Structures are given as C-alpha cells and as structure tokens.
Task: inverse folding
C-alpha cells in the first residue's frame, strides 16, 4: 500500500474476504495472534483502540510481523488517529464520520475507512472525497437490505460492513456488488486469546477460504 490514494478495500480484499477485528487485552498476545492469523491465510489485522495496550500491540505487530497489514480500529478522536500513525498503523478505521475526524484521519496520510450507518453519512463521506467506507453496525443498521437499497442511489460508495457479521452471514454480504470485504471478530474469540490457543485462531482464519470465492466473484463484477 503505497499511498492513501490506493484502494484500501482492494488491498484488504486481496488478502482475505474477512478482516479480523481484534481486541487485545495483553500486549504479549499481539504478535502471536497476528502470526496465527497469517498462518491461516489472513495476513491482516484491524486492532481496535479499546484497551490500554492497543497502541503498544500495533507497534509490536508492525515491528515483528511485517507480512501482516495492521490497522487501527475504533478511531474516535483526532488524537487517536495521530497516535495510531505514530505506532505504525498502516490504515485507520472509525465507527463514525464527523468532519473533524475525517480531517484528522486524512491528515495522517494513511488510507482509512470512516464509519457510516445512514444515507446522509454515506453522502458526507462521499463529499469528503472518499468512496470507500465502513458500514457499522451492519446488522443493527439494516444489514444486506440497506446495502442493496443504497447501491442504486449512491453507486460510487463501496463498503466494508462490520458489526454482527458472522461466519453464517458473511457470504450474503460478500455477494453484494458494493461490498469488497467484511470485518468480523469471530476469527479471534476472546476465550481463544485468553488461553493463548493460537491453533484455534489459525483454524478459524483458514476456514475463511470458503468465503474467498464469494468475495472474488463480487470483485470481478
């Protein structure tokens, strides 16, 4: 990923149809979970800024697992965007899209996905010059029906839905022409991380291979 003008969604989808949304409570788990995901064929991590160790975890993955594309998720303030950049994040993901947050994420020079849940928010992101965005919380905000409905009036918008996405409904999202990839937390269950069960994480990541064909089919449309 050489510049923020490159397609972040294409870069993510090229690596895996599912972007793991990871919450790390122990910084010692950061490198092993990233390596476990990569071993399962998912060399990408969206590490959420929900815990005190999140920035250190991003820093560790960026330094020790260079084959993994690491991003910072749950970016909610301009300050967090700057801190994520300094920690080595390669992309940013926010749950919403205020003017100040959009400006701050843009100022980092990193590619980013701003969160949207309504047509007005989708239009606001498009007006900011971005066509790629997050749809969150996907299931609670209308799911595949919402995305299908907005495809015609806002055909430029492309999405990575997250929030309520599971192994059971991911393929339905990936079948939509305006969805490039999905985000999900099921690849890194909290109990697996707590038990340092990296084999389970690798197995869950490997299972997303069944979704890859669906994702590649929609990308070719």
Result:
């Amino acid at each position: 990923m050489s510049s923020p003008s490159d397609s972040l969604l294409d870069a993510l989808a090229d690596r895996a149809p599912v972007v793991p949304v990871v919450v790390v409570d122990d910084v010692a788990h950061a490198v092993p979970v990233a390596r476990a995901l990569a071993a399962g064929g998912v060399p990408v991590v969206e590490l959420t800024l929900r815990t005190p160790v999140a920035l250190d975890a991003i820093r560790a993955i960026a330094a020790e697992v260079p084959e993994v594309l690491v991003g910072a998720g749950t970016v909610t303030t301009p300050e967090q965007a700057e801190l994520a950049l300094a920690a080595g994040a390669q992309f940013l993901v926010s749950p919403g899209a205020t003017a100040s947050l959009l400006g701050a994420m843009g100022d980092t020079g990193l590619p980013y996905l701003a969160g949207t849940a309504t047509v007005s928010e989708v239009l606001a992101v498009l007006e900011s010059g971005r066509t790629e965005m997050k749809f969150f919380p996907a299931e609670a905000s209308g799911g595949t029906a919402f995305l299908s409905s907005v495809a015609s009036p806002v055909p430029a918008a492309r999405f990575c839905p997250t929030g309520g996405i599971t192994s059971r409904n991911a393929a339905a999202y990936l079948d939509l022409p305006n969805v490039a990839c999905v985000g999900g937390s099921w690849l890194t269950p909290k109990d697996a991380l707590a038990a340092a069960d990296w084999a389970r994480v690798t197995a869950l990541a490997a299972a997303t291979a069944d979704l890859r064909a669906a994702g590649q089919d929609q990308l070719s449309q």
